[in-house]
Amino acid sequence: MNKTEYDQINETLYHEVLPNGLTVYLLPKNDYHKTYGLFSTNYGSIDNEFIPYGSDKKIKVPDGIAHFLEHKLFEKEDGDVFQLFGQQGASANAFTSFTKTSYLFSTTDQVEKNLTTLLDFVQAPYFTEETVNKEKGIIGQEIQMYEDDPNWRMFFGILNNLYPEHPLHIDIAGTVESIEAITADDLYTCYRTFYQPSNMVLFVVGKLEPEKLMELIRTNQNAKDFPPAQKIKRYFPDNNGDIIAKSSMRSAITRDKFVLGIKGLDVLPAEGKELLRYKTALNLLFQLLLGNTSQNYLKMYNDGLIDDSFGFEFSLDREFHFADFSGDTDQPEKAAEKVKEILLHFEEDQELSEENLTLLKKKMLGQYFQTLNSLEYIANQFTQSLFGDQTLFDLPEIIESIQLADVLKVGRSFIKEEAFSEFYMQPNV
Q: Where is the Peptidase M16 C-terminal domain positioned along the sequence (predicted)?
């Protein structure tokens, strides 16, 4: 078992790749009473075109199948796994993103028992046509709920503009029509392909004894038979297709909303550390230009173009990277135009100074250290943010290393006029 000391944050991370290919990380935090376990597979809603395990022919499966599979894994022949966790004093949950599916539990006792339950239920699928059909109604209701959420609709509105040909613009849960087409065989096909131990990561954080827990995981995995690992081949449409420059929709809202998106058209660094630097430098650039303490933000706020709802996010994952800036406003087109102007002319902006960058890096580090108090945050972020051999705990060093020249460089690389798109949401008349 490998052991990495992070002196700056006073953490020790234990790491091992098991013979079946499963990657395990253990992070003891014995001052806490709680323990979190998170079991993730590198498989999400965009992975709907691939070569199935044991085949050489490409297939396309219905949209929303990764999320459907996440729901179904909790149901077994002898009952519901949620109940079992409850009986063992743990709470359980799961979520699906564009590129990952994760299963988790949190508990204050019976850590070993709950961890065994987590490993066993994820690694023992049980689907029948009857149970699959029953689930369709439940997920159909969930899709309807998302469709009634204006912020959710707005997010997928801009994604549809930026990635009209790519599965990224399709709701993670799919559509009512697409889930109707899902069969038990489809679920088994996706499970066998993507739930291989070599495509999965187990992360446990909290009150734990690393050696003892690793031994339990080894024993559990050695007792199971897994088919030999097979390289996963996924297919995606060309990502550099046309961007829809502008679109809008009406919804049951009381005030106009806007979102300005930028699609990443630049070639990303291949190496994990440089990729994490790229992401951090861009986040710093957006904070400098449009964070809530910047002059640009204050001016737009005082001019009535934005309010407290204004915010932005930069997303970077395999297959895509994009930024979105959004908010509620009485002047949506004017607000989008102003944000776009600030971004396109970032090099001349007074906000980009060494002094402001130094202050912002201190603030970012302060927020980072604060988040380390939350086991849930660590567990969720750790598996979402694996950049090659770089982990969440390498971030302080990366933040400290970024200079103004790095921030300007990533801005020039990412911000391109042809990469912008606008999406508006207006109240129903």
A: 182-363
Half-sphere exposure of 415 (CA within 13 A, CB side): 23
Q: What's the CA gap between 424 and 189, in Å, rounded?
A: 39
Q: Which amino acid is at 289?
A: L
Give every CB contact of residue 115 below 8 A, 6+ residues apart in sequence: 37, 105, 204, 213, 216, 217
Name the residue range of residue 191's domain.
2-222
184-198: pLDDT as tens digits:
999 999 999 999 999
228-257 residue pLDDT tens: 999 999 999 887 768 999 999 998 899 999
Of the candidates 81, 91, 51, 70, the one whose C-alpha atom is nearest the C-alpha of residue 139 is 70
Q: Tell whether 239 is covered by a domain.
A: no
CA distance 24 to 380: 15
Pairing of strands 59-60, 49-50: antiparallel
- Is 334 within 8 Å of 293 (Cβ atoms)? no
Dist CA 422 CA 400 (whole Å): 34
Give the CATH number of the domain where residue 173 resides.
Answer: 3.30.830.10
Question: Rounded CA gap, 173 and 32, in Å?
Answer: 35
Look up tokens 């951090």; give the residue. Answer: 280
150 plus 273 within the same structural domain: no
Which spans in 148-226 are helix H?
Answer: 150-162, 176-180, 184-194, 210-222
Q: How far apart are CA 280 and CA 306, in angstroms?
A: 25
Asked if 332 and 258 count as a contact pair (C-beta separation under 8 A), the reply is yes
Query: What helix, strand, coil percent values describe the chain, rounded to 5?
Result: 45, 20, 35
Q: Are residues 150 and 192 in the same domain?
A: yes
- Residues paired with 317 in a beta bridge: 320
Across 11-25, 59-73, 267-281, 359-373, least confident range: 267-281
What type of residue is 79? G
How big is the CA angle at 393 (ends 387 and 399), to the nearest 5 degrees? 85
Query: Which residues are marked as active site?
Result: 70
**Residue 278 DSSP SS3:** helix
